[in-house]
Design a protein that fits this description.
With about 110 residues, this protein is α+β, with helices and mostly antiparallel strands. The chain has one domain. It is built from one helix and six strands. Strand 2 and strand 3 (about 40-50) form a beta hairpin.
Length: about 110
Amino acid sequence: MTKKARPKLESLIERETFKLKASSGGGVLSFEVWGYASEGKTVVTCYNLAYINRLICQKDNGRVLGFDNAHDYHHKHYMGKVIPVNFISYEKTLERFEKEWQEIIKAVRKGKK
């Protein structure tokens, strides 16, 4: 008799929102990550990373920058536009998101958009 594989139980891993001070560019950072544990490692199945600031962007509910894998593909939101992105790993996507939103904040501080 062969053992039947159990379905993976997906659960919310992280849901955090950070309000940024005006001196830090203002807006909100939002992280939502879903997944499951497998062989001692976390497997991310769904994610939504967003930098929201309606003073910078009024389109896309104020989402200046975002990365997610909704609608069955990995994509980036930037100032109201959505483009597909190559996905390597959730960790690489998170690094890219952090780097890009920090660049946006630097530009805002310098008076650019």
